[in-house]
Structures are given as structure tokens and as C-alpha cells.
Amino acid sequence: MLANPALSAEVPVPAEVEELVVTGSRVSEATVAIGTDRVTATVSITSEALLSAPAGITGLKMLESLPGFNVQANDALGMYEFGNSVSVRAFTFRQIGFLLDNIPMGRSDQFGGSPIYRYVDNENLARVTASAGSGDVSLSSYASLGPIVSYITRGPAEEFGGKVSYSRGSDELLRGFVRVDTGEHAGFSAFGSYSTTSGELWRGPGTIDRDHYEGQIRYRFANEASLTFQTTHNKYFDYDSPSITKAQYLGKAGDIFGRSGRSFAYIGYVPTPGPLGSAATATSLPITAAGVPYSNTNYNQYYKFAVNSRQDHLYGLTLATPIGDAVAVTVTGYYEDKKGYGVSPEAYATSLANYNAERLIVAGLTAPKGIQYGLSTVDGTRKGVNGRADWTFGVHAVQAGAWYEDDSYHRTQQRYNVENGNPDGRPLLNEPVHLQRNFNSTRKTVQIFIKDTISLLDDRLKVDVGFKGLDINYEIAGFRNPADFINRRTPTIKDNWKDWFLPQVGAVWSVTDRDQIFASYSENMALPQGADDIFALASPLAPGPDAERAKNYEIGVRTNRPTFNAALVGYFTKFDNRLQSFASPVPGSTTTETFFQNVGAVEAHGAEFSGQWKPAILDGKVYFNTNLSYNSVEFKDGFATFALTGKVVPDFPKWLVQGGVTLEPVPGAVINVSARHVAKRFTNFVNSESTDGYTIINAYLDLGDGFAVGPLKQVKARVNIDNLFDKDYLGTITTTTNTPATFRPGPRRTVQFTLSTDF
């Protein structure tokens, strides 16, 4: 956990400057800490706070220190992609917009998307800025229903230097990081960085490995214009760990391998095939189909059949230039190339049924020999341009811009035999057993916006008035599911969602030099989350869903005192066109099938408080921070046979509380202890199951701040301990409609030791 979300390096504060408060080695300007002058609730995590976190923490897990964000992760660093979840106010991970240096990240799906954690190392970040309810109208995203998170990197330094760090930790964690800055020469400057991370899964057999490269080249013109090229390359491989039910967690599921508790994992060995009809044991599984030694369904618990691999490459080119004294233009072009694969098992009986359904239709299939190697591949490109102009005149600051993106994605999914049907056998990619997917999907998006910030009453009142327009064209073509192969069809399905007037208005009033009141209203539209799965589920005749929409209202206050700053916001959010799959007649026919439909609305209301305090009585050596969030999220409509009106939306805790104390006992030493409490969460739509709340204590010790040896500056040693008291809890939830959910247990106590230096 990040102990203090808005804290940064100590800034010398002249006596006459009123804006900077609460100085300390982990404290920042109030403009960053509490979003001073923003019309929406906006807070940031700054560089020093990021560098206090465990080395290698991912861009998504960083958000857990921000008010209102319920972040769950499978491991202490948040590296396992399919084990992460986020909810904030009425929205989940795929309804949040993410940007990296003005480059929209598109959708956050692990398959084919561009989730932010693949594209950043926290050592290269200047700050992470988040708006939980109403991101600025100028920020580009087709995924956001309001929340926006921007990741801003530290560009090339003006002087030659760099940073090196080395970390070891629990579960054989090894991480190294190096960054070198060239310094600025005749307008040119650049940096390059590399990090490598490896370790073992904390739960079960398998490893996790990541190699990550970042770099920028910048040229500054004489007229203060700049041209910046940036690139990120990420290579990732890991083994999966399973989601489990409460019954499995409690040891009540009759698991033949004797698994239970938070360590419930895939098995690391292949049980011996037993005689047909014999009893199953942890080391012997009976044959269930004569002549097929590995026909027992439980062979799908072998860990080598659950892996993920990704390679992502992102390039961006940004021109920022003034035009005269009152106009500035920024244009960013970007290109992304990605590919990867995932492996999952399929039991013999399932493969046999699917093989028999396709074998007389699809040429080249082979009968199953045992456990199946399920291979899913992904590849695609994403390219776009994002530009804006800023024009200042009189009391007006006008911004206008446009964004275009073309996202092309290809996915396949097949089941293959392995040698002798043995789970440890070599995959036989020349022996497909049945085919499931081979489709292309595209998203072509146009967004425009215009906003005027009007300064009134000697700049004490600022009013934002603006709107954006969004047009999303979607197409999917090819074999979307096994039925397409069986019916010999490759349909092309198109849909479009657009709204050219999505308004946002807001105001911030400086009541005094230290106190502000702010309020905002915004409307947002987004691509239906999981669009590929939606259009791949049903027949080509099933209608496409409506776009998801939301209305967000906020009102709040901020205060900025010499030893204290804080922000309090109240909000109301209405999320329309919530999508859910259920059986219904296809319009225009009497055929009934299951497809995604608009089933009503979700409403959320609540309050968020964020503050930090450095009491003078403690001689400036101790300071405190806290975030407190209350969030009530309910369904407003029912669907099919489910009476959901008034039910709590699953995985949205009513209370999130976070607090920390930071102690600087002597120069060069920082000690922090923080706590994070997540309240009870329901796990399904009908609220028939829930999971208890939990509290996690984290701590870190930083030694050496300001210490130098020869050319080495800021030579530091840091110890991070996550889950200090080894709390056993259930974290990430895979929610359901009316059945028991599955969970990922939260990680146990994790210790990490880091040595770092600047030069």
C-alpha cells in the first residue's frame, strides 16, 4: 500500500507563500494533495510516495491509497493480471479511463486490451492523478463513465544522471531497475530505463517474470516548443492460480487433493492414472474412459495448463508549441503493437463432446487423447492521434480538441492434444481437437471537446462550461464461438454508439485564500464493457446493447492550512443501461436465447474525505494522513426472475478507511505505519452471499535520505512489509447473479528489501 497518496519531496517555503503547507519528506503542495482549483474531486499520488511503495508495484495497485478506490490484488505487487479488480463509486475497472502522457489506454481487458500496469514503472512517474467521479472533459477515453486516472512520467532530466535499485523479497522476489538520463545538450535530452522482475507464486507452483523498457527523447526549440518521442516495451509471463469458492476456502468442498484455505492452489505434480472405477486419491486418479489414462476431469488442476504471456510495445510522439502569446497547441500521435497467448485446460469428457459436435463439419480435427491444451492467442494494433489547443483571452481560458483511434484486435482459441494425453506432455499443435474462436474486432473512435474556464470576482470564482462528443464504431467478424464453426458461418456484425453532446459544468469558489467550495455535473457515455464477449455470446440475430451511460454530481470543500490540508466531497451517480446476459426471445422471432441486454440502472451516493496533518506540537517530526469513504451502491431495477431493486451491487464495500502515521525521528530516516480497512462486501446480485471486511497493516522504513558517497547521491535502504500481521482474508471477487461467487485469497505477509541510489 502507498502510505501517503499526495506526498512528495520537501519544498522550501518562503514565508510569504501561502499555497504550500505541511512540509516534510513525504508531503506535497496542496494543489496536488487536495486538487486545489479543480472543479471536481481530484487527488494525486506523487513521486516520493510512489518511491516509498514496494519496488515493482503496478500502476493499478498504486490506486489503493486514493479515497474511494477499492483495489483488490492477487499478490502484494498486483502483478498477476487476472487477479486484480477495482471499484470506485458505481463503476468497475473496465469503466475507468486511463491515460499515459496524453495517450489514451483504450480498454482494460486482459485479453486484447491495454491495461495500464503493462506500461509504467513507478520509478519513472512524476505523479498519478485520479478523478473518482468526473474526469475533466478534455481527457480522452471511450471506456470511462466518469472516473479518469492519468499517469504522468518524469521526462528527461536536464543534467546527466540516473538511478539504480535492487530488491529482494518474499517468494524469491528479485527486481532490478536502472535509469540513465543523458542531460540536455543543444536542446536534446533523453532517458532510458530497464527493469526486470521475477519470483515464485506465493500460492502454489509456478513463477512470474516481467522485463520492462521505457525511454524518451526530447528536443526543446528556442520558442519553448518541444518534440518528445517516447516508447515502452513490456514482456510478461506467469502461471495462474485458481479462484476458489468459500466452500473450497473453508475445506468443505471434499477436495480430493486435500486443499483448503488461502494456500489453495493448482497442483505441481501429475497423479498416477488408477484402474477404471477405483477410488480417487491425492496421488492417483481413476481412469473414467476405457483406454484413456488421463481422462479424469481432475487432471485439469495441473499448474502447467494455466499460463499467460504478453508482449506490448507502445510508441508516442508529442509536439507541444506556443502560437503567439495566447495560444498553445499539443498534438500526440501513438502506435501500439501487442501479442500474447494464454493456456487453460479442458477435461477429456468436455473435449470429446465438442469434438463430436465439430468432427463431421470442420476438417483436420483429431480425437482427444486425454487432458486438452487450450490455447488462446491475441494480437493487434492500436493507433491514434490526440490533439488540443489552449487559448487565453480576458477572463476566458478556452480549450478545444479532438481524438481519433483505430483499435484492431484478433483472437483465436483452439483445443489441442498433448503427447499421450499426459498433462506433462508436449503440446501437439498439429492435432487440433476442436475450434472455438477465430475472429477480428475493431473499434474506431472519434471524440471532440470544448471547454471554457471563466475567471470571475478577481479570480476567486472559476466556472468551467464544456462538452464532449463521442462516436464509436464497432465491428466483429469471423468465427466468434463454436456455433459459428458448426454452422459454417463467419458473420460480420456492426454497431455504433454516439452522442455529440455530453456536457460538463463545474465551479470552484475561493471563499478565502485557504478555503474553497467546488461543484460539478457531468454526463458520460462508454463502449459497452466486454463488447467482444457480448457480441460473441449470441447468434448473429441477437441485437447489440445500448451504450452505457452515467450522470455524475459532486459538491465539496477544501482547506489548506499551515499544518493541515483536507478535502471533503459528496456525490451522487446514476449509471444507466447496465448490461446483463439472460434468456429472452430474439426480437422479430420466437427464438429464445441468452444474450446481453439493458436491465436498468445503478445509483450510488456517498462521501469521501482526504486529509493530512502535521501537528506543530510534535516538532515537525510526525505527520498523519487519512482517507475515509462512504459509498452506497444499489440496483434500481430487476430483470428476468430476479427482483434486484434495492439490492447492493456486489464487490462495493460501504466503507473504505485508510490512515497512516509517518515519523522522521532523525535526518535521513523515515518510518511509516499505515492501515487499510475494507468493509463487508456482497458477492452476488441477490445479496445471498457476502464476505467479511478486513483490515491490513503495512509498514516501511527508509534509511539514508540525503546520504551521499562520492558520485552516488540519495543512497538508501528501504524495508517494506505488506500485511504486517499476516491477515487471512478473501480479496478479489468474481461476482455472480444468484450463486456462490469465487474469490482470490489476499496475499500473506510479504517482506521486501531495496537498496537504491541516484548518480
Question: What value does the Rg take, in angstroms?
Answer: 27 Å
Our count of helices gives: 6
Strand proportion, as a percent range, falls in over 45%
- General form: globular
Straight-line N-to-C gap: 27 Å
- Biggest β-sheet: count, sense, barrel? 22 strands, antiparallel, barrel
Low-pLDDT stretches are: 3-21
Average pLDDT taken over every residue:
91
Helix content: under 10%
Count of individual beta strands: 38
Structural class: mainly beta
Question: Would you mind describing this structure in some detail?
Answer:
With 759 residues, the protein is mainly beta. The two termini are 27 Å apart. The N terminus is likely disordered. A hairpin with a 3-residue loop joins strand 9 and strand 10. The protein has 6 helices and 38 strands. It has a 22-stranded antiparallel beta barrel. It has a 5-stranded mixed β-sheet with strand order 1-7-8-5-6. Strands 2-3-4 form a 3-stranded antiparallel β-sheet, with no helix packed on it.
Short description:
5% of the residues lie in helices and 51% in strands.
What does the secondary structure layout of this molecule look like, with pairings?
Layout: H1 30-33, E1 42-46, H2 47-52, E2 69-72, E3 85-88, E4 91-92, E5 97-100, E6 103-104, E7 125-131, E8 148-153, E9 161-169, E10 173-181, E11 188-200, E12 207-220, E13 226-239, H3 246-249, E14 272-274, E15 284-286, E16 307-323, E17 327-346, H4 348-358, E18 372-393, E19 396-418, E20 427-456, E21 461-479, H5 482-486, E22 492-510, E23 515-526, H6 531-537, E24 548-561, E25 564-576, E26 579-585, E27 592-598, E28 602-613, E29 622-635, E30 655-663, E31 669-678, E32 681-682, E33 690-691, E34 694-703, E35 713-722, E36 730-734, E37 742-745, E38 750-758
